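Title: Prediction job returns without error message
Component: structure pipeline
Severity: low
Priority: P3
Assignee: unassigned

Description:
Job completed but the reporter wants confirmation the result is attached to the right record. Sequence as submitted:
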Amino acid sequence: MADGFLLRGGRLIDPAAERDEQVDVLIRDGVVVSIETAGGSAAGDAEAIDCDGLVVAPGFVDLHTHLREPGGEDRETVASGTRAAALGGYTAVSAMANTEPVADNAAVIQEVLALAAAAGSCDVYPVGAITKGLAGESLTEMGEMASNGVRVFSDDGNCVSNPRLMRMAMEYSRAFDVVLAQHAQEPALTEDWQMHEGPTSWLLGLAGAPSEAEEMIVSRDLMLARLTGARIHMCHLSSKGSVEMVRGAKSRGIRVTAEVTPHHLTFTDADLADYDTNFKVNPPLRSEPDREALIEGLVDGTIDAVATDHAPHAAQDKDKEFDQAPPGMLGLETALGAVLALVHAGRLSMPRAVEALSTSPARILRTTEHGGPVQAGAAANLTVFDPNAEWVVEPPFASVSSNSAFIGRALKGRVVHTFLRGVPTVFGGKAVR
């Protein structure tokens, strides 16, 4: 039986160590044992894997995953969602709090952790709710959840719209040095919304959500973060104005990070012309100038991370009239190909793509096991992908659901192997667990 693995001749991209070179990586007993010049390593009892032409990178980390369990097992389970994550190159995901019951107490947090440990496909970091029941009325016991390992708190799906309550949450969060992740959407401006407000929504006759609904909350929370000194994270930015405000806030030393989804980098509101509910997401797909601003923000680091907002829905829920269908799409299995489209187009460097998928989200989550640096003694949480593998997205997915706007789309770039503490969760492109 093989004693570990030798990843031979791959291009190691490790942003945490500012490393980009062709090497051999030996992993054994759950850790990286050595990194040598390509071709200079003897495999010994380890299984040698030819990685010539492949990229070896720290395992990807998703800051924004809806695993649905407990309560939404018809849409996703922790086991199916983490299997999908592994196939996408992820070794860690943050599970959002809008489960049934809501993850607003230590008991639900512990249940999610137990389910993830049993599944074994990737590490799961549960996100705790900011307010009880996501109702936006009273704060949860952040301290209790923080003592159970929670590092990020969010009412995602709902905006914490009360400024006094958000200020209190920020002040409270500082005591535990945790991050508050905001779903920026002013509810008074988005009642009954269906898509981005603009010429396309007017043409299609659908109620719109203006960019200003997001930008008002982004602006407010940046001011509250300046006031309180709290660490805040802006979920799924979608508008040009939001990007500009975050860029300015960072230049002034406000403790803010931000994420963008692969679908907001890829699609616009024009893609809703056929009323395909797979393109209905929250926040909505916006205009081409907004998409361009998001790409520019990702390139220059204003937007720190790519996060999937993986949001599974049952077929019978998505297969409804547009105004009745819930927003959200799958993201874990297609994220790499969507991001690499920008690399192949010359818009984004490969090291920056890896940084946005792995190193930056790991830093925001404050996990030292993921995101690199890839070095001797470090946990062997790695992904190996073929940046030039061409494939067409088609169901079935590892996810229980299949609500993806990428179906039928050709992508370039696919995961070949994923290792969680040196154990393959994906090998040869197929899930092992």
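Comment from assignee: result matches the submitted record. The chain is about 30% helix and 25% strand.
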